[in-house]
Amino acid sequence: MKKYDWKKEYNPIRRTAKRILSGDPLSDGRPLSELIEPDEHTRKCLAFEATLTDRQIELLQELGFLPIVERKYPPECADCPYTLYEREHGVCKYCPKLK
């Protein structure tokens, strides 16, 4: 198992942090480093965000330290093969788990 397995993460804050830290290529095969190359401080912040619990994220959002994300994916989407980008662009409307 990878250290940062972002595909099974349903919380958007943790999912984004884990995806950037994972170094997995983009869907078109290009390396993620073509778009973003985090410095050491950013890596530490992302590693911290990747370990937060849902409750800790909610508290940090209430205090204004993390952005408030309007859409959170339910736990039943943990095994969804689609990426966050694909989900936000409509593939979930056909999902039998969400009906």
Characterize the structure shown.
With 99 residues, the protein is mainly α. It has one domain. 36% of the residues lie in helices and 0% in strands. It is built from four helices and no strands. The chain is flat and about 40 Å long. The model has no long low-confidence stretch (mean pLDDT 78).
> Which oligomeric form is depicted?
single chain
Low-pLDDT residue spans: none
Q: Which structural class matches the secondary elements?
A: mainly alpha
The pLDDT mean sits at 78
Strand content: under 5%
Radius of gyration: 14 Å
Please outline the major beta sheet: none
Number of domains: 1
The best one-word shape is flat
Distance between the termini: 31 Å
Share in helix: 25-40%
Number of DSSP strands? 0
How many separate helices?
A: 4
In N-to-C order, the SSE pattern is HHHH
